[in-house]
Design a protein that fits this description.
membrane, mainly alpha, single chain, about 80% helix, about 140 residues
Length: about 140
C-alpha cells in the first residue's frame, strides 16, 4: 500500500510525537523508578514500542512483519548480552554502551520484548481493519 505525500507526513508527525513521549517515559523510568516491576518489565515492553515509533518516522508505510522484525532484533541484542559483547569490545566502563547494548542476559527481557511486539501486532491489526471498514463504508 502506497501512502500519499500528505498522509506520509501526517504519519511521520504522529510517530515522531509518540517516539518523543515514549522516550521521555523510558528516561523517567530509568531515572526515578527503582521497583521490581515497572523498571524491569514495563521498560522492556516499551523499548520495542519506542523502536517501532522511531522506525515508523523513517518508514511510514505499514509492514505487517515489523513487530516480528523488532522482536528478532531485540532478542538478538539480548543474546549478545549472553555472550558479553560489551566486555568483549572493551566497553564495560562506557555507560552509554552499557545502557544501549545492555550487560546482563535475562530470559524475562526476551519475554517482555515479545509482549511489546504482540501489542504492536494487535495495534497494526486494529489500524488495518479500521481502514478497511472505513473504505468499505465510503464506497
Amino acid at each position: 500500500m502506497s501512502l500519499q505525500k500528505d498522509e506520509k507526513r501526517k504519519y511521520r508527525i504522529k510517530y515522531a510525537v509518540a517516539f518523543i513521549v515514549l522516550i521521555i517515559i523510558e528516561v523517567l523510568i530509568a531515572l526515578y523508578v527503582h521497583d521490581n516491576f515497572v523498571r524491569p518489565y514495563i521498560g522492556d515492553v516499551l523499548v520495542v514500542i519506542v523502536l517501532y515509533s522511531a522506525i515508523r518516522v523513517i518508514i511510514p508505510e505499514k509492514y505487517v512483519l515489523m513487530p516480528l522484525y523488532l522482536f528478532v532484533f531485540a532478542a538478538g541484542v539480548e543474546f549478545l548480552q549472553y555472550f558479553k559483547l560489551v566486555q568483549a569490545l572493551g566497553l564495560q566502563n562506557n555507560t552509554f554502551f552499557r545502557i544501549i547494548l545492555g550487560s546482563t542476559f535475562d530470559w524475562m527481557d526476551i519475554l517482555c520484548y515479545g509482549v511489546g511486539c504482540v501489542i504492536l501486532g494487535v495495534y497494526e491489526w486494529i489500524v488495518r481493519n479500521r481502514k478497511r471498514c472505513q473504505v468499505t463504508v465510503t464506497k
